[in-house]
Amino acid sequence: MFVVIANIQVKPECVEAFRAACVENSRNSLQEPGCLRFDVLQQHDDPTKFALFEIYRRPEDLGLHKETAHYAAWAEQAAAMQAGARSSAKYAKVYPEDTQP
Fold first, then answer.
1. Are 50 and 22 contacting, i.e. CB atoms less than 8 angstroms apart?
2. Which residues are bridge partners to 87 per DSSP?
3. Whole-prediction pTM
4. Strands 35-42 and 2-9: what pairing?
5. Does the pLDDT at position 99 exceed 80?
6. Given 40, 52, 65, 69, which is the most exposed site by the fewest CB atoms within 10 A?
7. Considering the domain 2-89, what is its CATH architecture?
């Protein structure tokens, strides 16, 4: 499995719109065959900070995700709402071991 955690801070006036855009992107992403999980997280003590927790079957599935129309729409919307550059880190899942192929 291939895991991505993206961190994004948005302008205070954009919190609700950003949240809605992320939920829509997540709904569509979960329809992709290679996307196993797509959580939208909002920081408790600073609602302008979000994290996206994404799990794909393979690294290539992230590339396919970024070619979708819903990702392009989200990326355009998100860019206008961000308070700074977003960051992300990629991980390999170590434990628990997967029981399904």
1. yes
2. 7
3. 0.91
4. unpaired
5. no
6. 69
7. 2-Layer Sandwich (3.30)
Q: Which residues contact 8 (CB under 8 A, 6 or more apart)?
A: 18, 49, 50, 51, 52, 78, 82, 86
What secondary structure does DSSP assign to 12-72, as a single string?
GGGHHHHHHHHHHHHHHHTTSTTEEEEEEEE-SS-TTEEEEEEEESSHHHHHHHTTSHHHH
Q: What is the pLDDT of residue 97?
A: 80
Contacts (Cβ under 8 Å, ≥6 apart) of 62: 2, 4, 54, 56, 90
Residues in the chain: 101
The pLDDT score that the predictor gives to residue 101 is: 52
Q: What is the DSSP string of 55-100?
A: EESSHHHHHHHTTSHHHHHHHHHHHHHBSS--EEEEEE--SSPPS-
**pLDDT tens, position by position, 14-30:** 999 999 999 999 999 99
Give the model's pLDDT for residue 57: 95
Is 35 in contact with 67 (CB distance < 8 Å)? no
